[in-house]
Design goal:
- InterPro entries: AcCoA_carboxyl_beta, ClpP/crotonase-like_dom_sf, COA_CT_C, COA_CT_N, MCCB/AccD1-like.
- GO terms for molecular function: ligase activity; transferase activity.
- Pfam families: Carboxyl_trans.
- It comes from Nonomuraea fuscirosea.
- With about 525 residues, this protein is α/β, with parallel strands linked by helices.
- It has three domains: about 240 residues, Alpha-Beta Complex (2-enoyl-CoA Hydratase, Chain A, domain 1); about 190 residues, Alpha-Beta Complex (2-enoyl-CoA Hydratase, Chain A, domain 1); about 40 residues, no CATH class.
- Helices cover about 40% and strands about 20% of the residues.
- Strands 1, 2, 3, 4, 5, 6, 7 and 8 form an eight-stranded mixed β-sheet that branches. Strands 9, 10, 11, 13, 15, 16 and 17 form a seven-stranded mixed β-sheet that branches. A two-stranded parallel sheet has the order 12-14.
- Helix 5 links the parallel strand 4 and strand 5.
- Helix 4 packs parallel to helix 5 and helix 16 runs antiparallel to helix 17.
């Protein structure tokens, strides 16, 4: 068992806790924007029509008192579009079956899809396919946001491709249609395995009455062109005709119950032990200044079952902590940055550990706080490039599921070696303290200054020190803003910014979801020792 050395009475702990609580208050404020949808005016208009809100539909669809892990709630943050990207997505339990659920938010521009809606929807479908989770769409959307059609139309076809691939892979797809599903959106129910439409509310057509009039001169109305009753009685697109929204949700639950769905991966047996140390103490671990290192064992002690951790190679490559633990009964191999920088020893140690995890078919958990691989003449001559490449190679070709949590810094190629977004972890979450960029703001601005100074010298020009200072300040400010967790989450470089105290719960939900799918095929290599 890990023996915690965290002094919760110290001034450092108090300051770190206060800083984290401040960030969490900011997180709550931003996430509340997504929950608010299009604002009070449009919420009231929606309710006046006798309709439920997107999150209310999800709450009634999932099992009572069961968790719903919302994904990418900050999508579109910092863009011209509303926070949340007019769609809610996540993993919920329906009739004891874990499912990926997406729900259009019609209070936000009629549920129209913007570029971030598309990215968020594609990510949801990817999670469903990779983890073998039934995919349920709660549909009510006016189609594409036309002013941004150039960014939506061509890549948007992936939504329909993914629905057919899910079905071909034997992963059920269900569409519950509550309102409009027009133009390309008509293919969502059209390509789903099971379709439920609400009488007098659902409207599914490739072209609405105005478009039909313009294209063919034909006069038609919504109901005869694409109403729920028509599709249930004439076209056959609707498999079930619901009398109202509650009936549609009831039918959706019945469909999932009829699947006979079973997990194909590992299922924990026996009682699960809680960590010895309180999750609340996670708030005071990460320093405000990410250049100050912290011991990731303090995090593991508050996340792992029984606070137990079987450390691997503790005396070698000490800047990277590796070892075995359980989270909610699921075995995991943990890689956690201890002092930020990755040296050759850490890189080789990581490669060996990843290969061992692949031999035992154990999922890997990466806890990121890295400034990257070490630079300098001695390290270059010592082979840091080839050793870093060895670690990245192992991460790239590992076939066990990966989970990543960015706790602090995630700079340079360290982001790659520690399984950043580009390396396809099954799930990636950030703490509010997380920052990620090609390098730190001061370092990046300094490099630009050095390059500019050298260029002026080569041209025989006098270097403008005043302009240099202004440039450095501007670059540092911009890179700092672009490296923050909210900014990165807004661009879907993670699956959400989470409260550190929820880390164990979130990881448990993800590990359970991952094991809906069968164990992946093993990698085709043995273990190479450093």
């Amino acid at each position: 068992m890990i023996r915690s050395r965290l002094d919760t009475d110290s001034e450092d702990y108090r300051l770190r806790r206060e800083a984290m609580l401040t960030r969490l208050a900011e997180l709550d404020a931003e996430q509340s924007k997504a929950v608010a949808g299009g604002g009070q005016k449009y919420v009231e208009r929606h309710r006046a029509r006798g309709k439920l809100l997107a999150r209310e539909r999800i709450e009634l669809l999932v099992d009572p008192d069961s968790p719903f892990l919302e994904l990418s709630p900050l999508a579109a943050w910092g863009s011209e579009f509303p926070v949340g990207a007019s769609v809610v997505s996540g993993i919920g339990v329906i009739e004891d079956v874990e499912c990926v659920i997406t729900a259009n938010d019609p209070t936000v521009r009629g549920g129209a899809s913007n570029p971030w809606t598309l990215k968020k929807s594609l990510r949801a479908a990817e999670i469903a396919l990779r983890n073998r989770l039934p995919y349920v769409n709660l549909v009510e959307s006016g189609g594409a946001d036309l002013p941004t059609q150039k960014e939506i139309f061509i890549p948007g076809g992936q939504i329909f491709r993914d629905l057919t691939r899910l079905s071909a892979a034997g992963v059920p797809t269900v569409a519950l249609v509550f309102g409009n599903s027009t133009a390309g959106g008509a293919y969502v129910p059209g390509m789903s395995d099971h379709v439920v439409m609400v009488r007098e509310r659902a409207k599914v057509f490739l072209g609405g009455p105005p478009l039909v009039k313009m294209a063919t001169g034909e006069e038609s109305d919504d109901e005869s062109l694409g109403g729920a009753e028509m599709h249930a009685r004439i076209s056959g697109l609707a498999d079930h005709l619901a009398v109202d929204e509650l009936d549609a949700l009831r039918i959706g639950r019945r469909i999932i119950a009829s699947l006979g769905w079973r997990k194909r991966g590992f299922v924990p047996d026996g009682p699960v032990r809680e960590p010895v140390y309180a999750a609340d103490e996670l708030l005071g671990i990460v320093p405000e200044d990410l250049k100050v290192p912290f011991d990731p064992r303090e995090v593991i002690a508050r996340v792992a079952d029984g606070s137990e951790f079987d450390e691997f190679k503790p005396l070698y490559g000490a800047s990277l902590v590796t070892g075995w633990a359980k989270i909610h009964g699921y075995p995991v191999g943990v890689l956690a940055n201890a002092r930020g920088v990755l040296f050759s020893e850490e890189s080789q140690k990581a490669a060996q550990f990843i290969q061992l995890a692949n031999q035992s078919r154990t999922p890997l958990l990466f806890l990121q706080n890295t400034t990257g691989y070490m630079v300098g003449k001695d390290y270059e001559q010592g082979g840091i490039i080839k050793h870093g490449a060895m670690m990245i190679n192992a991460v790239s070709n590992s076939t066990v599921p990966h989970l990543t949590v960015v706790m602090g810094a995630s700079y340079g190629a360290g982001n790659y070696g520690m399984c950043g977004r580009a390396y396809d972890p099954r799930f990636l979450f950030s703490w509010p303290s997380a920052k990620s960029a090609v390098m730190g703001p001061a370092q990046l601005a300094g490099v630009m200054s050095i390059v500019g100074r050298a260029s002026a010298l080569a041209k025989g020009q006098v270097y403008d020190e005043e302009a240099d200072a202004a440039m450095r300040a501007m670059v540092e400010e911009r890179i700092e803003a672009e490296s923050l967790a909210f900014f990165l989450s807004g661009r879907l470089y993670d699956d959400g910014v989470i409260d550190p105290r929820d880390t164990r719960t979130v990881l448990g939900l993800c590990l359970s979801a991952i094991n809906s799918a069968p164990e992946p095929e093993p990698a085709g290599f043995g273990v190479f020792r450093p």
